[in-house]
Each structure stands twice: as C-alpha cells, then as structure tokens.
Amino acid sequence: MDDRVIQNGILFSIAQAIGAPEQALRLLVSILLGYPIALFNCFYLRHKSAIVQHLFFTITGISIGFFNFGWDIGHSFGCVLVQYLLIKILSGTRICVALSFTFHMTYLLLGYYQTGTDTYDIKWSMPHCVLTLRLIGLCLDYYDGRKKPDQLNAHQKKMALVEAPSLLEMCGHVYFPGGFLVGPQFSMKRYLDFTNNVYEKESGDIMQCIKPGLIRAGLGFFYLALYQVASNFISDAVITSETFYEHTFIIRVVLVGLWAKISLYKYISCWLLTEGVCTMSGLTYNGKDDKGRHLWNGCANVKLRVFENATRFGHLIQSFNLNTNAWVAEYIYKRLRFLGNRSLSQAIALFFLAAWHGLHMGYYVCFFMELIVMLFEKDMEVLAAKNPAIHKVFNNPTLAPVRWVIGKLYVFCFMGYCLAPFTFFSDYWSIYGSLYYMGFVVFLGWRFVAPFLLPRLIPRSPRSAPPSEEKAPEEPDQLKKKQ
User: Fold this and answer.
1) What is the DSSP string of 438-469?
2) Active-site annotation holds for 357
3) Cβ(175)–Cβ(65) under 8 Å?
4) Which pTM does this prediction carry?
5) 120 to 23, 165, 225, 428: CA distances (angstroms)
6) 303, 306, 307, 309 alpha-carbon torsion, rounded to 10°
7) pLDDT at 14
8) C-alpha 332: how far from its chain's center?
9) Which of 131, 142, 176, 333 is a Cys-bridge partner for 349, taking CB atoms 3.0 to 4.6 Å apart?
10) Which of 155, 197, 309, 357 does the annotation list as catalytic?
C-alpha cells in the first residue's frame, strides 16, 4: 500500500479521535516539525557556511510543503523562480516592482479562485499568501537598495538590499520551516543576517535563543489547549445553529462575543508556535533592551498582554498579526504618500489586505468594519482630548476602573460582529440580522452624524493656527509600524 495512503489513514484516525479536521492536524504536525529542525540547525549547522543552511532550510521546507499539499508545492517554487528571473533581467527598477506586484497578486487571486469553497480551506493557497508578501517585499527591498540613502526612511534603510539575492538564498528565505506555512513575515535582510551569523556575533551566544523559544512554544500549547476545550462549548456550529436564533438579543451578543474570543485563540496558538520555531533557531534576535538584556522578539506576531487587556479595537489591532500589519504599513500604506491623502491611503491598504486574504465578500466586509471602527475611535479620542467635560471624566483616576469595564464590554460586544464575515463567508448576514445590524448602526451611523455633532461638541479655539502650523494627524493605529 502507498505510504501516503497509510499516512493519511493514521492522521485521519487521530484527527477523528481528537475532533479536529485532518488538514488542521497535518498543519499542526508540520509546525511542530520546525522545532527539531531549528534545534538541529542550532547544534550542528549554525557554524557551517550560509550555503549549507540555505540548502537545509530549502529541503526541509519543501518536504513539509509536500507533506501538506503534495505536488501543489510546485506553485510556490514556480513563483520563486519567476521572481528570481524578474530581478535578474530587470534589476531593481520600477517596472520590476510593478511586474512583481502584478504577477504575484494575480497568481494568488487565481489560486483563491481555483481552490476556494464556502469554508476556510487549508490548501496550497494558504501558505502562498505568506509567500506573496515575502516576494513582493523582497523586490521592493532590492529596489530601495538602488536608491540613495537620503531617499529612504529608517525602515527602508534597514531592509534595503544592495545586492540581488541568489536563487538558493531566495528558496531558503521562502521555505524557512518556521515561517513558510503561516508566517511570521520577515525580510530577506533578517534572513541573510541570520544565516551569515550576524546575530551569533551580536548576541555572543545564539544558544540563548532556546529558552525564549520554549517559552513561546509553551504559550502556544496553552492557547491551543484553551481553544480546543472552549470550542467544544462554543464553536462555529453553535453560532450558525437554529437554536442560536431562539435566544434573546443579549444572549446572542454574549455568545457571539465568546465565540470571537475563542476563535482568535486558534490563530494566536499557531502564531506562538511558529514564533517559537523562529526564536529557537536564532532568527528573531532583536538587539538589547534598556537594561542590556538580549531581545528575541524580532518576529513576534502577537502581544498577549495588550490583546488580553484590550479596551478598544485599536489595542486588538496593535497586538494581533503584527508582522502582516507592519508589512502593509511599510510596503503599501507609506508608499502611497504621493497621493497626499491619509484616508485614501488607509482605505487602499485595507482593501489590499482584504484581497490578500481571498475573494470572499466577507473579507471585504470585515476590513470595512475595521476602517469605520477605527475612524469612530479616532473621533472619540479627539472628543476626549478637546471636550472639557469628557476630558475631565477620562482623566479622573477614580473612574479608571469604570472606564476599563466599559471598554472591555465595548470590545466584547462588537468583536464578534466584526469577525463574523471573516469566518462565515455565507452566513454572516444572518448573524448580523440576529444582532439587529448593531455594528452598522453604531459605527456606520456615526459617520453620518459626526459632521454635525463633532463641531458642536468640540469648542472652537480662540485663534486657529495657520494651515502650515497645524499638527499633521497621526497615522491610523492599524497601519503603524508594530515593531
């Protein structure tokens, strides 16, 4: 009997026993395989040449990809090869960047069209979205490397590539086992510094990475267990069942809020486990803190304390999927500066994020909700700062516990509303109806009344500053650099 058939049978039996989809179990096993690979590299290969490490990461990464997707792994290698040829033929020119962006996004969207169903599927297009950002970012970094330093911002100077990477370097970067399947996103510059032992020299002993790597792994297993247990009580099926609609409005709000919190634990557990692989390999070295302690958070994708203590959606965005948000901020949002309109740049960046996730309309609704929620919170910040009465309440230390409780309830009640279209591609309108479209009523409704209310709630200053002296508005929280 074919080994793969036997393998599938074993995995299917285990998946049935623990109540998980087979592809999800296969993905988890693949992530965990990264730990022995990282340890082997640390103990035996870290002092070898960079070429040896590139070969090792390429072979192990492709093997893991084949374990999950079979010969569909060829999609990723084909795109790596196309990117290599584009750079070799067109160098770091604008046309190279334009063709790279167009080719990779088109290929990804065609992949979504080919593999997409009405549910979230773990197919070759899932890791391909990570690869798409990695290759587009690589092309832009090489484009920046051909510019004069005074034409670059701080991030671009740090990530710019003066020399074009080789095909082997590109494969090692793309197929690195700790980031190939679900991220985290990291630059070619970081990968090359890692394989050329720059972090070994800066840290003094790269083996210090093992302990923080194990800590992140432990947290990953904790959140995975939390998700597995809690989802037995409040799962996707509970929210879409007929029984759900028989509950009162308040109970439905509570159930959707609990469901959203539990659902996010699934993503957090995956990110923590993959971050543990990257950390244990030494890839995440990030200099020293103010006390001289070595930092290993260069690929951190979630800030747990910020996430768990969130009292507004800005906190969730600042703590969740950090590397993707940072990538979009640097490679999309800030490069749209020529438009001269922050709101337009923000909208384009969020539209890109939605398209990058897939073709389902739910993604676009989800990121539209993010846009109007963040605009709402920005207006509330302005009110709290400029309305004397509201400012007094917000700065009263006695009322801090009350503000915290209200903030937690606000996030809890609306988090599920914002997340529903991201998860339920066809049923979210039914869920929205059961909640009386409260998210649209509050956040979209505010967009219509804000132009009339804000001028009345914010006292006019006696003397307005000339336009040239006015302070520029801050960047949207979800598009700020996260690291």
Assistant:
1) HHIIIIIHHHHHHHHHHHHHSPPPSSPPPGGG
2) yes
3) yes
4) 0.89
5) 11, 34, 21, 14
6) 150
7) 73
8) 14
9) 333
10) 357
